[in-house]
User: Which sequence fits this backbone?
């Protein structure tokens, strides 16, 4: 018989002939990849696509019948799973033998499932991974009742048969690689011997790899698996092998492989509940499958050392293997149990119940009276430390705690996410915004050095260690305890003095209440303010002294099971510790309940932000996000000078402007000094909306007219009048159009509008359009009150006005008797880099300048600055007063912002970083047809996405997709523009080169994702 690996091809004429003979039609054909067999995509006359399978002559009928039987079985028992269907031949049979030339082939036909190979899909996200899990579960569940003699066979890829690789450890030259494969294989072989008999077995698909899955067209939402192919590797094996194999391939392509695995298991378990032994052996099986894979590759590589493909294909497997090797299998077992709805640590319920029944002693030797203790919130959102990282560094940290605690013992909370763990020990890769370990797995007591520490439970001294690294434990004592059923667990006391080392010995029995040490001074406690960390540990995971006291918040379920609440033993009243954190979903639900729903929430996956520092925002778990969006926190979130000025003023006086106070005039003077001469009368309000409202009143007073010209797609604020002058709102959803006194001029957009960038006259031509509107107003017998525009329209799509535009517009407006209002709310205060005020870049001087957002660095503040003549016209007898406008606190904040802008080179930074971003974005733009335009000035940038570079069809959902994906990468950006297709980048001014490079790298990667790819 012809050998398996000898290729046999067939001519197109023969294929057409045999299709006609067996299926009764003349097909259109296209060859598909296939290792041994010939697979041909054929079109039926009805236009349906099918796959004609012409098997290699070495294939047996049993092999084909097995697949046909399985596919038919699944079509009946799991019709919802996207699988190929068997197409009958005109004879009514599913297959036939055909002899062409000297070879006889089995020929059969399947329906065709369209899609992209999973291996080529980008990105592989959690939802797609979870869908794989679900489909594999459905297939396995349905195959439970399937038997076929063809599946009774042994394949080298069968995970259960993987022990053959033990003979090949030597194939790995690299000692680390060899030891990983050896350790995993030996441990799997032992597990299998011990528990393997309990593994449910059935016929399995056997090879759900990334080339045997197709996924649907990419969309705004996550895509789905649209087909699982190739049942040619079916065999009887452990049922859960299918999940192990599919998981290995999904994990190789997923940026967070273990999270992907957990998502797959949840879905799999929902349709085919896993047996406890399967939960236990699944992770070792995944590792084993990877070990088989790298062994096969290594053996093949030895045979073909020059084939570069060998190295490329094994790289992802090795990458994942290294990651798997760094996780304790029991930890994965616990995570898997949790995914299946079980208590992660099997002994948990027993140990917790046992602990509850024990007599315990107070850790500090006596119960603390209410007056002696204070719940100490050190969470990410705690106000005790604030956002300034220097507050969590010694010695300031100790000083702040001393002042706050005022002699009381501070009690710090269990499962509290904290940002005080600042050294690299708590990070993974050292990226700005990666997940760090933040979740406190203990309760801690903060008080004076030397405070005595007592054993809470009787136990045996299990560990006495000294860990001197910064922010480690210093002196550490671990006691072991054994329950009445013989289950061992531990209590850990960290940050002690050397007393414990001196007075205790390993193996020594200690009684509850026995003094076992005292709070160590910072020099020996890991450089912390003095305290003790008390943690319960159910399984040390063979980590010894490296068992974490702080875990990943994303893995809270498993870590809280490994380290249950210490209050089970401490037994303090609930108010002694800080209240538990509210989860994101609780917060979201309550917000939906209590807050108007059109107060929108950003991102498909909303963020709970509890802290801000410089150009970073932090969510409730302590994950940092690069804020590339928030131009309000101009000098950086929580700028200490602004915070200090505002809080000091708040502690002194905050009242209204009806009394004399020097700060108000000083602030007005300082602000006027930044503006051209003549703009020297200031009004202070509480928001930019209020400022624009006031600007319109000034205009009306000065001109006696109300008619205004506004720009298309403009937004100027949320009040009634401002909605009237904001086409973005009144022409958008829920809007009722412009009132008769509002006249809209085209937006001078030199990308999308009629006059393009590069046309030196574009500014003048767009300005003429304003003149036409003026003429129209006049033709109606109306008079022009004024013209208002943002100097770089933001909501309008991050537009940079063409040169000369405002100069001409202002001339036309003034000639018609109108006033010119510059809305500098988004772009003032140096944001555009070249100038402090954006209107300066157009070489004009407005009559009224409106300020907001950055002016107070987050303190509610707005301002209107105008000429003496306009101010005098407004002073018409009606008193002007705003209760909070110009209040002392806001003025103090505003002054501090001006100080910061004077003393820090933020405007220059905006220029440099803006250029870095523009250059970077423009460098990648030519590779992506969807990037229509990259524009901006300073740190005010827009990337306009279009579906077609000719028609400029706006790619709105794609822009939203990009902003959501940037969020996944830890970058906060937004979308804007009349068509919502402009990705907007507008960060706080301290934005750094590292931030810019990270944003550019993420942007570049996202642009390669399938949903954004354009032919
Ligand atoms: C250009 C412009 N003007 C005015 C406002 C109104 O500001 P506020 O929401 O502070 O009232 C905004 C707000 O986005 C704005 O972008």
Assistant:
């Amino acid at each position: 018989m012809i050998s398996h690996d000898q290729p046999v091809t067939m001519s197109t004429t023969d294929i057409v002939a045999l299709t006609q003979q067996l299926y009764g039609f003349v097909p259109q054909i296209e060859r598909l990849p296939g290792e041994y067999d010939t697979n041909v995509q054929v079109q039926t006359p009805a236009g349906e696509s099918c796959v004609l399978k012409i098997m290699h002559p070495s294939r047996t009928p049993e092999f084909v019948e097995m697949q046909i039987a399985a596919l038919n079985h699944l079509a009946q028992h799991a019709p919802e799973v996207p699988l190929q269907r068997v197409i009958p031949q005109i004879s009514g049979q599913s297959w036939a033998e055909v002899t062409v030339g000297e070879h006889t082939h089995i020929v059969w036909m399947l329906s065709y499932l369209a899609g992209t190979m999973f291996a080529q899909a980008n990105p592989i996200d959690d939802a797609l991974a979870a869908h794989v899990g679900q489909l594999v579960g459905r297939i396995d569940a349905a195959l439970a009742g399937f038997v076929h003699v063809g599946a009774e066979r042994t394949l080298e890829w069968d995970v259960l048969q993987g022990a053959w690789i033990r003979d090949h450890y030597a194939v790995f030259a690299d000692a680390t690689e060899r030891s990983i494969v050896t350790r995993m294989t030996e441990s799997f072989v032992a597990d299998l011997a011990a528990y393997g008999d309990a593994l449910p077995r059935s016929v399995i698909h056997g090879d759900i790899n990334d080339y045997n899955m197709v996924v649907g067209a990419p969309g705004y939402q996550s895509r789905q698996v649209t087909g699982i192919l190739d049942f040619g590797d079916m065999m009887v094996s452990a049922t859960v092998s299918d999940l192990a194999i599919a998981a290995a391939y999904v994990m190789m392509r997923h940026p967070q492989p273990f999270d992907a695995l957990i998502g797959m298991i949840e879905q799999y378990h929902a349709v085919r509940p896993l047996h406890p032994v399967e939960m236990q052996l699944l992770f070792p099986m995944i590792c084993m499958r990877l070990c088989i894979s790298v062994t096969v590759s290594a053996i093949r590589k030895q045979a073909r050392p020059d084939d570069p493909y060998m190295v490329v294909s094994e790289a992802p497997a090795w990458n994942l293997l290294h990651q798997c090797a760094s996780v304790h299998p029991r930890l994965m077992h616990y995570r898997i149990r949790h995914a299946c709805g079980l208590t992660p640590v099997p002994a948990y319920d027993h140990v917790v119940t046992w602990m509850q029944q024990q007599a315990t002693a107070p850790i500090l030797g006596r119960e603390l009276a209410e007056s002696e203790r204070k719940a100490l919130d050190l969470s990410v959102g705690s106000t005790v430390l604030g956002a300034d990282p220097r507050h969590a560094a010694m010695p300031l940290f100790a000083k702040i705690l001393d002042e706050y605690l005022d002699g009381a013992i501070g009690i710090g909370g269990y499962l509290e996410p904290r940002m005080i763990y600042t050294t690299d020990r708590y990070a993974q890769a050292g990226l700005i915004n990666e997940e760090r370990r933040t979740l406190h797995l203990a309760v801690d007591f903060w008080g004076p050095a030397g405070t005595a520490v007592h054993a809470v439970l009787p136990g045996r001294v299990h560990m006495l260690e000294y860990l001197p690294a910064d922010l480690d434990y210093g002196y550490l004592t671990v006691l072991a305890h054994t329950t009445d059923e013989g289950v061992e667990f531990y209590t850990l006391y960290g940050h002690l003095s050397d007393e414990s080392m001196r007075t205790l010995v390993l193996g020594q029995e200690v009684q509850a209440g026995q003094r076992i040490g005292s709070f160590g001074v910072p020099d020996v406690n890991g450089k912390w303010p003095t305290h003790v960390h008390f943690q319960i540990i159910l399984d040390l995971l063979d980590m010894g002294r490296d068992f974490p006291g702080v875990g990943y918040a994303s893995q809270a379920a498993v870590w809280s099971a490994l380290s249950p609440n210490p209050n089970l033993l401490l037994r303090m009243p609930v108010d002694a510790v800080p209240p538990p954190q509210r989860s994101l979903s609780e917060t979201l639900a309550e917000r939906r309940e209590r807050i108007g729903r059109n107060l929108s929430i950003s991102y498909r996956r909303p963020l709970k932000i509890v802290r801000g520092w410089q150009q970073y925002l932090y969510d409730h778990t302590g994950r940092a996000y690069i804020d590339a969006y928030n131009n309000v926190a101009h000098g950086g979130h929580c700028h200490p000078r602004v915070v200090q000025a505002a809080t000091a003023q708040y502690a002194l006086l905050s009242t209204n402007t009806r009394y004399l106070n020097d700060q108000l005039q000083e602030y007005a003077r300082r602000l006027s000094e930044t503006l051209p001469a003549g703009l020297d009368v200031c009004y202070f309000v509480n928001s930019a909306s209020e400022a624009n409202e006031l600007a319109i009143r000034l205009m009306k007073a000065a001109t006696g007219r109300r008619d205004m010209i506004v720009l298309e797609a403009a937004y100027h604020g949320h009040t009634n009048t401002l909605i009237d002058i904001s086409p973005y709102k009144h022409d958008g959803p829920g809007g009722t159009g412009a009132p008769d006194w509002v006249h809209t001029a085209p937006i001078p957009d030199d990308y999308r509008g009629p006059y393009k960038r590069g046309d030196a006259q574009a500014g003048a031509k767009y300005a003429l359009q304003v003149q036409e509107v003026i003429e129209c107003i006049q033709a109606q017998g109306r008079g022009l009150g004024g013209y208002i525009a943002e100097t770089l329209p933001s909501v309008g799509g991050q537009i940079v006005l063409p040169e000369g535009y405002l100069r001409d517009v202002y001339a036309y407006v003034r000639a018609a008797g109108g006033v010119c209002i510059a809305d500098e709310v988004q772009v003032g205060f140096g944001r555009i880099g070249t100038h402090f005020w954006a209107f300066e870049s157009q070489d004009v001087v407005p009559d009224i300048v409106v300020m907001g957002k950055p002016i107070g660095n987050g303190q509610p503040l707005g301002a209107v600055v105008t000429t003496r003549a306009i101010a005098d016209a407004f002073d018409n007898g009606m008193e002007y007063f705003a209760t909070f406008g110009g209040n002392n606190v806001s003025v103090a904040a505003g002054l501090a912002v001006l100080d910061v802008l004077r003393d820090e080179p933020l405007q220059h930074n905006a220029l440099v970083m803006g250029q870095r971003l523009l250059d970077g974005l423009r460098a990648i733009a030519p590779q992506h047809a969807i990037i229509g335009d990259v524009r901006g000035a300073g740190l005010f940038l827009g990337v306009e996405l279009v579906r077609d570079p000719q028609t400029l069809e706006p790619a709105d959902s794609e822009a939203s997709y990009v902003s959501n994906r940037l969020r996944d990468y830890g970058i906060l950006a937004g979308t804007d523009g009349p068509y919502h297709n402009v990705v907007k980048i507008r960060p706080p001014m301290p934005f750094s080169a590292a931030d810019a490079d990270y944003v550019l790298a993420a942007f570049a990667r996202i642009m390669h994702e399938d949903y954004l790819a354009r032919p």
Observations:
- The first helix runs from residue 12 to 23.
- The chain has a mean pLDDT of 96.
- The longest strand covers residues 103-111.
